[in-house]
Each structure stands twice: as structure tokens, then as C-alpha cells.
């Protein structure tokens, strides 16, 4: 059986961060967050890493990653563009940003032929998550049985303000029944206890600490490409006049669940997640990585 592939979403422009955070250094020897994901993926048994990027970033990415990964894992590059003709869509639609995460995955349809997982370039997921996903992709995945990593909600929140989170509903078999995007999730002190709430339409609702959330870490087979392309062909004409509309992985997952075409097993992890959205996040991420190095989880120099 072929080893699974790691597909990294790295085509975003990071407008809120102010620079290309995908290749920004966070480790003591200039390591990117991507480096830590690839290091964990190699240890977990992945055989290839594919970077989804804009074509104009190709040389920069190759200069950074090819020397350090040579002989350690196969590398590949997928280009996400605005051209819709490869999907059989004969329309020219002006947009300032690509069509979203599910469109990015769809861009890899001609280059991936084995089970694979999808992650964000700017999120730190931890080794346990890669280990569990590798086992699923090697032993459990089928063309109608996919997965996502389910992070405990309190291990994904910020001490500095509210965040958006995809909160999963999970049945007794461990499968996701729906995913709800909560746009304002935060910690709040209540009677001396730190609790978790989300706010919607001015109404505050408490969430259990045991709630599982998606951090965009998904496991698929290439069967996802065909069903995604069908959904994308319907999505584009319905949203061509909305320049901010995005074809997102959770939307595809939700549709497949509703149609009974696939299940999504929620793989629970106790790992703490952290990531970068704003420039102020950088020192926090650097400190978190330094603590992991000091405790022996990672070497000071990865590659």
C-alpha cells in the first residue's frame, strides 16, 4: 500500500498578517510552521508532501524547502489559479482572492492518486495528530469514509480575543453529523471559573469544554475530487456575483453527509493547536515552539 500524502494549503495571501506567513521563520534556526508539520508527517509515515501555492511563489518555495527535504520525503507542487476552464466552467470571473480551500484541494486532482490529508500552512497541529491521521489513511479510509482531526475546543482558543471555530456534532459512532461555523468563540470568567461561549446575533451560548472543533485537518481518498468538482460546478454560477464567496472544505463535507455519500470520522486529539493570523501572534508561536524544543519534543534544528 502506498504511503499517504500531505497536502499543504499555502496559496493564501495572508492579508491580515502583512507578509507571507507560510514561509516566515518561527523556529530557532529559521524553521517555518510548515517545517514542523512536515517533520511530524515524515515521522508518522507520510511518503510525499504537496504544496498548494500560487504559481508565482514556486521558485521561492522550492528554494526554501527543496534543499532541506531532499532525500527525506518526495515533494510536489500544485498551483491554485483563477482559471475555471480546467473544471469545464466557461466563465471569466474577476476575483481578488482564490475560490477557497475546497477549490485548492480540487486543484490537486491530477497529481494525487493515493489517500491524503489536507492541512493549513500556518497552523501547528502536533505529532499525535499526524500519527492518528496516518493510521486512518493507511488502515481505515475508503472512498466513502473520510475523516477530520477533532481538537478539544479549549486547546484552540486565544487568550487575547474571540476566534472563529467549526464546531462539530459527533454521533455515538464517532462520526460528524454536522459542522457549525461559530464566528465569535471566547473564554469568559464566570463565578471564578474559565468557561467557553460563542455569540451569535447578540445571544451568548455556552459550549462544553469537551466540544470538538475542526482546524482544517482532513483525510480523503482521491474520490473526493469527483464529488467536489460536481459541487464546484454548481457553486460558481450561484456565487459569481459575490466576490467574497468561498468554496470551503466544510461545505463539501456537510453536503456529502446530507446526501449520504460519505461519513467523516472525527479523530480525537489531545494535542494543543496554535497558529498565526495577526502579527501579534508571532511571538506567542515562537514561545510555544521554544517550550516544545526545551522539553525534548523537537530538536533545535529540524533538518
Query: Radius of gyration, rounded?
Result: 19 Å
Structural class: alpha/beta
Count of runs of 4 or more consecutive helical residues:
7
Average pLDDT value? 90
The biggest beta sheet reads: 11 strands, mixed
Amount of beta strand:
25-35%
Can you characterise this structure?
This protein has seven helices and 13 strands. The protein is an alpha/beta fold.
Q: How do you describe this structure in short?
A:
The protein is of the alpha/beta class and 303 residues long. Helix content is 28%, strand content 28%. The chain has 7 helices and 13 strands.
Keywords, separated by commas or semicolons:
303 residues; alpha/beta; eleven-stranded mixed sheet; two-stranded antiparallel ribbon; 28% strand; globular
Topology overview:
Layout: E1 5-9, H1 33-44, E2 48-53, H2 58-69, E3 74-79, H3 101-106, E4 116-120, E5 123-124, H4 127-139, E6 145-152, E7 163-170, E8 176-190, E9 193-200, E10 203-207, E11 212-220, H5 223-239, H6 249-259, E12 263-269, E13 274-275, H7 281-294
Parallel strand pairs: 1-2, 1-4, 2-3, 6-12
Antiparallel strand pairs: 4-11, 5-13, 6-11, 7-8, 7-11, 8-9, 9-10
